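Backbone description:
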Amino acid sequence: MLGFVLGSPPGLAQDSNPTIEVLEAETAEHRIGTRGPIYTDLFQNMDPADLARPLTFEVVVGPDGKTLDAKQISGFIFGDLTLLWKTWQYRSFERNGHPVVAKVRESVAILPIRKRSEVYIPFPEIHDWNSLRITLSRSGCYGSCPTYEVEIHGDGSVLYDGKANVATKGRHTGKISHASLMELVGAFRKADYFSLADGYVSGVTDMPTCASSISFDEQSKSVLDYLGRRLGMPPLSPTWKRRLTACREPLN
């Protein structure tokens, strides 16, 4: 069964900058995007009381608004939740006019898939392409599943980190053309990405977890996918999958 490994990233100096604890009201003002709910069919196999509690995290946010670390406080769901909190973004927290490292608390509701209602949210227009950031990550599984992370920016730059069971391991950089970037964004738009739920988690164990995200103009959307197709998660377009997969090919 997949477990939850939530550790500090290598090289993070915990004592170089004091961490400021932030209350919910301030967190809400700085939070970019939504935090759930996640839909699941686990209620069919487990006591609903065990899943009634939301997933609760203590999250460490860096001066740039990106998540550095997280600790799960309560709740249960299958899948690698590291992929979930890594997609979260915030407007920088400040004290005395300077960005600081902040600790916030986040709560993610877990709901049965039968309560999912389709809501159409139009894909926003991108105004500042320099703010564009697209990510795709995939965890391991009980077998030999490819494990990697890909990050693409609005200038076409690509960051790739091959972790396990991939042709190229380690961190590499590269670049895609503007035409390829436009095609990739168009695939997100065609998939009505902002209309998807924040997470689809099946009750089957030992499978890989996938997480994708797109952010721009202080807007952000991410989707956690743990056998989401079993729950009716709409299939993403072949172009979307092909372009993101191509970006994880060997880069130099």
Observations:
- Residues 19-114+128-246 form one domain.
- The CA atoms of residues 78 and 104 lie 23 Å apart.
- The mean pLDDT is 86.
